[in-house]
Amino acid sequence: MRSEELALESFQEQIKDQIAIVLVEPQSPGNIGMVCRAMKNMGLSELRLVNPCPIDHPEAYKFAVSARDLLERAVVFDTLAEALADSGISVATTRRHGKYRQEIFTPAEVVAKLRSNLGNNRAALVFGREDSGLTTDELALCRWHATIPTGDDYGSLNLAQAVLIFCYELRKGWERGVVAQSRIIADAAETETLYGHMEQTLLRIGFLNPQNPAHIMRSLRRIFARAELDEREVAILRGMLTQIDWAATAFQGKKGS
User: Fold this and answer.
1) What are the distances in angstroms from CA 108 to CA 215, 216, 242?
2) CB neighbours of 105 closer than 8 A, spacing ≥ 6?
3) 197 shares its domain with 162
4) For residue range 2-57, what is the model confidence (pLDDT) as tens digits?
5) Is the pLDDT of residue 257 over 60?
């Protein structure tokens, strides 16, 4: 068997059940079908849809071509948080930069990071709406952010084109061999519980502005996302927050107020 065939077999065996493509509120059945085709072209098989347009639509089947099986197996979720709950690694794709859109990786850089972390973890690549992408709050749910470098005159890519580029980079990145086993990163369900606890505790002790707690919480999310917490570390932090909650029983108001 040729080396490239071995690489493809290794790629499909290792990640077909570990990496999900997540589309948030896709608006075109045809785009969903084309995404299925792009995924199958590159050996991925798990599609998750968040509050999508109708998927049992003739246009979806028309553009899926021979990837109709992926379309029929696609799992629908009400929220992005639910779609990411079992994933320790999540990558939000975005075209825009800004205050809450920092440390944005290229597709090749995302693949390099996945090669170092995927061994014992599930991952999700998240793509936003065709007309407006992902919201800031949706980006905050994801561990890493990524973008596809494009020309300045017109940077907006078709949804299926963007998915195909990321899937191709994944396929190409696995030609170098199987990913080594890695530490198990806490999944999104666990980290979201941590962030919810943290927000309530920090509000209680007056650290967060009750009118806009998300402003600082987004920065804290980025700090802990870089730390790539495991289950034990999440438990330690939650224990610390519980102790702060207990110690703040007699809290008299924010320092200096």
Assistant:
1) 30, 30, 40
2) 91, 113, 144, 145, 146, 147
3) no
4) 555 555 555 556 666 789 999 999 999 999 999 999 999 998 999 999 999 999 99
5) no
Q: Strand 104-105 relative to strand 75-77: parallel, antiparallel, unpaired?
A: unpaired
91-111 pLDDT, tens digit per residue, is 999 886 655 455 789 999 999
For 110, other C-beta atoms within 10 Å of its C-beta total 24
Q: How many domains does the chain have?
A: 2
Q: Is the pLDDT of residue 128 over 50?
A: yes
At 88 the three-state DSSP class reads coil
Residue 227 belongs to domain with CATH number: 1.10.8.590
- Domain shared by 101 and 142, yes or no: yes
Helices (H), the chain: 3-15, 29-41, 58-64, 68-73, 80-84, 107-117, 136-140, 159-173, 188-204, 214-227, 231-247
d(CA 211, CA 8): 51
| Whether residue 252 has pLDDT greater than 70 | no
Domain that holds residue 202: 188-250
At 59, give phi and psi (nearest 5°): -65, -35
Q: Is 50 exceeded by the pLDDT of residue 75? A: yes
The sign of the CA dihedral 115, 117, 120, 121 is: negative
pLDDT of 66 over the 80 cut: yes
| Cβ count near 54 (within 10 Å) | 9
Cβ neighbours, 10 Å, residue 82? 15
